[in-house]
Amino acid sequence: MRLMARVPQLSCFLIVYTTFWVSCEWCFSAGKQQPLSLIRERGGQGMQTLAVRNITLTKESRVLLSKITAAGKRRKWRQVQKLFSTYSGSDIPILAAVMHISLKCREYEAGRRVFERVCQENLDKNGPVFAAALKIYASLGESLRVQEIWEEAMATCEINAPLASARIDAAAVEGDFDSALEVLGLLHNTDTAIEIVHITSALRACRSAKGQRHELAKELLQRAFELNLKPNVVTFTSLLACFSEAPLREIQAAYAQMQELGIKPNKVFAETYVTVVLGRIPHGSSTVKSIQDDVLPSQPPARVQAAMKALEDFKIAGVQLTALTKVVDAALQTWKHKTPRA
To answer: Where would you find the membrane-spanning parts of this chain (predicted)?
Structure first.
């Protein structure tokens, strides 16, 4: 089923607002989670006007939250654990902060325990709590629990951009493209602004979609342009990851489109592009010899040349290549000398 038939026509009129994380008093109805550092480049997100509930903390709780937040920004998980280990209170800002930091530090089991504590103590859950829980359980591979949490969130909170973003992120982790599209449709139906982060996460989920993934991904990117959104390098990296079965001309066209928009590649994009052009290359076990013996001989000369050309472009642009991309580059350089001149 085509994407256009699955997602309704989206309005180009967006309601934009900015959300902030505040260390002492958090506005949870409109709170925005910290980005996942590996792949996110997020700005403010849009949503319809909602009532905002401020939560005031005691002086001791404010101090603790400040310390936990500071440690979390530095990814000092042991320090967060030490600070949180003696805390027996029920302040949602502190519990939510630890959940989000557990995501940032990939301590998913620890995040699960904090959420279970919130449930067991029957505390009021809100946007940041649900957002963190969705991604924690998705990262743990518990799809049914993700759906249960989402249903509870929808029964408890009004939909907003950050919460929707968390659900689409969870769908991306699970490879659940249908759920990602459902959330985009929900945002449209509730007149909540769709931001580029939503499209980018949906593209990540698209990697596991059935059928011609690259065609679905192209239509999703087109939606972003129709909404006057500005794709970034993360968006195009997620797009290209859906092109594993696409013709070479489609892969090159997507890269050309990115260049036309003035978006500079980074090392993640470079690796994604080269591996899509040359086919699946196992991480961790690839050597120059294995690539030359097992990968390059099976590829048409046009794809080998396209990978060489792209790597030249990336190096000229000053892109710092990943370890895998460096191995591929070395393999191509020596392969170049082995290939008879036309």
So the answer is: none
Rounded CA gap, 323 and 311, in Å? 13
Last residue of a domain, one of 219, 250, 281: 250
pLDDT digit string (tens) for 251-283? 999 999 999 999 999 999 999 999 999 987 876
Residue ending a domain, among 250, 280, 309, is 250
- Asked if residues 187 and 152 have their Cβ atoms less than 8 Å apart, the reply is no
Q: Which position has the token pair 């085509």?
A: 2
| Residue 241 in tokens | 């990851």
- CA 94, CA 68: separation in Å to the nearest integer? 8
In total, how many domains does the chain have? Answer: 2
Q: Are 16 and 44 spatial neighbours (Cβ–Cβ below 8 Å)?
A: yes
Q: What token pair was written down for 318?
A: 């000053």
Q: What is the pTM of this model?
A: 0.78
Q: Is the distance from CB of 103 to CB of 74 less than 8 angstroms?
A: no
